[in-house]
Design goal:
Blueprint (H helix, E strand, L loop, with lengths): L2 H12 L2 E6 L3 H13 L3 E7 L3 H10 L4 E3 L2 H5 L6 E4 L6 H10 L3 E4 L11 H9 L4 E3 L7 H12 L5 E11 L16 H17 L5 E8 L6 E9 L4 E7 L1 E12 L3 E4 L11 E6 L10 E5 L4 H15 L7 H20 L3 E2 L1
Parallel strand pairs: 1-2, 1-4, 2-3, 4-5, 5-6, 7-10
Antiparallel strand pairs: 7-11, 8-9, 8-15, 9-10, 11-12, 12-13, 13-14
Helix pairs in contact: 2-9, 5-6, 8-10
Length: 346
């Protein structure tokens, strides 16, 4: 019996996947740990921080059995099957390589890296150690996005002309990693990756070229207002992202027959429903058109359960490292376009 069959038999018998959490990052304790605890095929068994008291405080709060005062201890825990890694962007690759060397599967926060080429060593080490590494785009697991993708395929929207996105918030805290350039801060890295990945997800293809512009904070040097146009050939995807504006999110998918407006596209709250407006092409007034409401659901829990199921049943991986590299190539081109002030081919 080969190693892959042994691994398959182990997970098939296990049925419950053990997760470890790397660091005490807010997204971990606010979204991902609660999501894992909701999941029927997953459980959190360990949490690591460079500060043991911080780790202990969180493990007590969430009733997690093990707490570690170093990341290395978590990597070496034989009981941990998957590590969730929400470290700052510039630390993603190095920390994930160490986890892979210890045979750990990984759910790694977006963006996976600061350059697409930086992902290559991670692809290599993950392959050598036969582990799965996935980028944590929880939005692809929300039922509303699955529905709209099928709606587009049905032809009811007609041919898609464009996808337009606005995503913004207001954060001027100089100590926040989103405002620290060397840590991969700025609007494009933090939230520009979302309209990029969703456009690729809906269209099932890659943009051919991009053009973009941005405004930088004089002190932080990070982009605080950026706009980009992704050319998919016969379809345009445009987005504006901002870190010092009002809190706003919306995606508009323009078709030749109908228009779909997604009102809660990215940060859908687990206990609140999400809403679409399907404009019929005859009236621009909301009341004259179709409003579709999706029940409250936890997109983070869907993401966790899907990953654990891929390990348990050895099913095909939906979005792995090669997809993450493709998304990062688009971001690379966006930054290059801003620098060169021209269209950049991908």
């Amino acid at each position: 019996m080969d190693c892959s069959q042994i691994s398959l038999n182990f997970f098939m018998k296990k049925r419950i996947i053990n997760w470890g959490i790397l660091s005490t990052a807010k997204i971990g304790w606010e979204h991902v740990i609660p999501a894992i605890k909701k999941s029927k095929n997953s459980q959190v068994i360990a949490l690591a921080s460079r500060n043991l008291s911080r780790a202990t405080a969180l493990t007590k709060k969430f009733k997690i059995p093990k707490s570690y005062g170093s990341y290395k201890e978590l990597y070496e825990d034989k009981d941990v099957d998957v590590i969730y890694n929400p470290l700052p962007n510039h630390l993603h690759i190095k920390s994930s390589i160490e986890a892979c060397k210890n045979k750990k599967n990984l759910l790694l926060e977006k963006p996976l890296s600061l350059k697409s080429k930086d992902i290559d060593p991670l692809i290599k080490i993950a392959s050598q150690n036969k582990v799965i590494v996935k980028e944590a785009f929880m939005v692809r697991h929300h039922p509303q996005w699955r529905w709209v993708k099928e709606y587009i395929k049905s032809g009811k929207i007609g041919s898609i002309s464009s996808i337009s996105t606005v995503f913004s918030y207001n954060n001027k805290n100089p100590k926040n990693i989103r405002n620290i350039k060397k840590f991969g801060g700025g609007a494009i890295y933090d939230i520009g990756c979302y309209p990029t990945v969703i456009s690729r997800f809906l269209l099932d293809k890659e943009p051919k070229r991009v053009i973009a512009t941005s405004k930088n904070d004089k002190k932080f040097k990070t982009d605080i207002l950026s706009s980009a146009l992704l050319d998919f050939g016969d379809i345009f995807s445009t987005f504006t992202v901002a870190t010092q504006s009002t809190y706003s999110q919306q995606v508009v998918i323009l078709g030749t027959k109908k228009t779909v407006v997604i009102e809660n596209p990215f940060n859908a709250i687990a206990n609140k429903p999400t809403t679409f407006v399907i404009y019929n092409g005859k009236s621009i007034y909301r009341k004259d058109n179709t409003i579709k409401v999706f029940p409250a659901t936890d997109q983070y829990e869907h993401q966790v359960t899907k990953f654990s199921n891929e390990l348990i049943y050895k099913t095909k991986i939906d979005y792995g490292l090669l997809d993450a590299k493709k998304n990062m190539k688009v971001l690379d081109a966006i930054f290059m376009s801003i620098k060169k002030k021209k269209w950049i081919k991908i």
